[in-house]
Amino acid sequence: MGRWWMVLGWVGLFWAQAQSVRVVAASDLQYALPEIVQAFERQNPGVRVELSFGSSGKFYTQIMQGLPADIFFSADAAFPKRLEEAGRTTPGALRLYAVGRVVVWVANAWAQQGLDPRRMGPRVLLDGRVTRVAIANPVHAPYGRAAVSLLERFGLIRPVREVAWEEMTEGVAAYYNLSVLRQGKPGFEFVYGENISQAAQLALSSTNVGILAFSIARSEAMQRAGVYWLAPLSSHLRLEQTYTILRGQDRPEVRRFYEYIATPEAHRVLRKYGFLLPGEKPEE
Description:
There is one protein chain. This protein is an alpha/beta fold. It has two domains: 112 residues, D-Maltodextrin-Binding Protein, domain 2; 129 residues, D-Maltodextrin-Binding Protein, domain 2. It has 13 helices and twelve strands. Helix 2 links the parallel strand 1 and strand 2. Helix 2 runs antiparallel to helix 13 and helix 3 packs parallel to helix 4. The longest helix is centred in the first third of the chain and has 17 residues. The protein is globular, with a radius of gyration of 21 Å.
């Protein structure tokens, strides 16, 4: 009898493990993806989705080093494509799930003193009071790269050294001329979050200004604390957000969640947080 209970226990443990889906995802999904998971799990009571959030670049590196995961959601197309080229993904599984948007966010206290990005756009950063701006680290965060490209597009910074994003380890100021942003100020610096979620926390807690993901700016906490200007898609690096199933992980429950992302129910949540869906055009 004891032996049979032991066997049944091992079967139960195997079944529980087989019915879990391990997801690593870009931090701009920290509000949208849990809502999607909640709806998915209601429809699939035997499946549990485990979520981990971070920067797309760091997850790419960790996956290449053997991170145990089933599905990878990136904030851009480049990192999943590199995994695909390295043979680390399920063939044919690379898929666009959304296009990301970028905002300039300012805390209410400053907006009420005239620093309102809804009226000033990115030129709000020229005000003498703005000496620190929170962004995600462009070395490994696509939203950090989009922030840098936005500033360059509006003439607020100018490149002085050509370098790949991954090599910008000395900070933006080492590769771009920031004289426009520094003019008339005692100083100016970027404050870096390891991912776009941490950049938002820095904007909330210390800098009062950040260049952030629209999906995070639309969260209840950020809308309560500040206001934002939504950048046109054409004004920054395009964030073609893709996801894929990692090599050897195409199990039935993994495939079910992967396919669920393309359903109307999941699309409603993504749209709620400001993502553009595949094929959609922005109202600009």
